[in-house]
Amino acid sequence: MSASLPSTSPFPFPRFYNFPPFFSRQPTLQTHHSQLRKWSTLILNYCRHHRIFKLSLIDALDTELLYNKSLDKRMGIGEVREVVEFMRKEGRAEWAGEGGKGVGGNEVWIWWRNPEEWASLFYEWVDDTAQKHTVLTLYELTESEATISQEFHGMDPDLLQKALSILVKRGKAQVFGQEDQQGVKFF
Amino acid sequence: MSRKGVGLAAFDRSRITSAQYASHGNSLRSSHSTSVATQLSVFRSLLQQFAQTHAKDIRSNPSFRAEFARMCAAIGVDPLASSSGAGGKDGGGSFWAQMLGGSVNDFYFELAVRVVEVCGASREENGGLIGVKEVKDRIMSTRMEGSSEITDDDILRAVNTLKPLGSSYSTLTVGPKIYIRSVPKELNIDQSAVLEAAQVLGYVTVSMLMINLKWPRARAKTAIDDLVSESMLWVDMQCAEWEYWSPGFMLGTGDDG
């Protein structure tokens, strides 16, 4: 997992990023579908590269992800929403907000790993490092130096809760304590 | 007064002459064909020797392979056609497959499978029309390192091997560029002209066509719209006049990725 260090290196954009029509909604259904798939791949790879868990669409519009400066082409908010909807149907994104009801909202979870996958990743890591039955603070899990080489390092606390609650449901972990002082024990 | 036989005897004479000609022709033909048959068998054994000695080169060296294929074509032997010949010449395997232990055939058949994969995977973005060079680039990019190089020529031969399957794969020349078409769709003259124009800058606009091809607006618009609806052109709406891009340029520019 050497590639999982937070990379400051620039993201290697795929070739179609430099294809001007890529930023305009294609009128032909088949072409549009191909376009959506390419965008979906691009967003997932980009977020994985930069360890972005939750994407704010409005803010992203001016980043290199959705705005190709050298071509001076950009994605509109409507087009991005369409891409997100497409990703959601593929199980690779979810609208953030109250109960996932924020459809058309601004913030969106990008599941380059979905909560299930995160949950098993946590579990594997705890298993590998022989920390079962040890109490770990949530801060330790995602912010301490011990996990700096892990993909979940620096994870959004909301997502962390989601992933842990999956393990709790399966009886593989127990979360206790108050806000900010929460700890977790894996079984 | 006896300049020419105009009597009945003339008929006899001409009949005799033609019979003589025919018999002479027959004997010529038979002697010719035996000599050709000997030549052919000699040639075949030589070709066989050659192919066996150089089978490895044929497989691994693209320029050698191309030369070999060209030589075969020049003397009227199509390595691929003769291998798919119905019934196989010498019992089991074909003449060619026997010669090379199937390696040349296998090479092209394997390549053909890759071509079909690439065409299938990219059909959505290009409407089933893809440049030979793009196919080659895509295949090369997924190949393992150290594997032998392939050329445009190899790709075209591979596409030809698909013909006996009755598939819709065929090649299509537009301007200087050769495309592989994987959907049974004919382009009309206007559409070909638009695609050819799009090869120059990567895109066309309606007014470009109006100026350069002296087309009325409606004609330019129709040709473009048809191609767009076939996924053969992508629209860039973020410019003064809409630009219609050829998806081939998606691979042609920028970095790898």
In short:
The complex is a heterodimer of chains A (187) and B (257). Chain A has 187 residues and is of the alpha+beta class. Chain A is built from six helices and eight strands, in the order αβαββαββαβααββ.
Q: What is the CATH fold-level name of the largest domain in chain A? A: Arc Repressor Mutant, subunit A
Please, what is the average pLDDT of chain A? 83
**Mean model confidence by pLDDT of chain B:** 79
In terms of DSSP E residues, the strand content of chain A is 5-15%
CATH architecture of the domain at 186-257 in chain B: Orthogonal Bundle
Low-confidence stretches of chain A: 1-5
The domain count of chain A comes to 2
What would you call the shape of chain B? flat
Helix tally of chain A equals: 6
Stated plainly, the CATH topology of the domain at 186-257 in chain B is called Arc Repressor Mutant, subunit A
Main sheet of chain A? 3 strands, antiparallel
Largest interface: A-B, 27 and 26 residues
Quick one: overall form of chain A? elongated
Organism (chain A): Amylocarpus encephaloides
InterPro entries (chain A): ESCRT-II_cplx_Vps25-sub, ESCRT-II_cplx_Vps25-sub_N, WH-like_DNA-bd_sf, WH_DNA-bd_sf
GO cellular component, one term (chain A): ESCRT II complex
Protein name (chain A): Vacuolar protein-sorting-associated protein 25
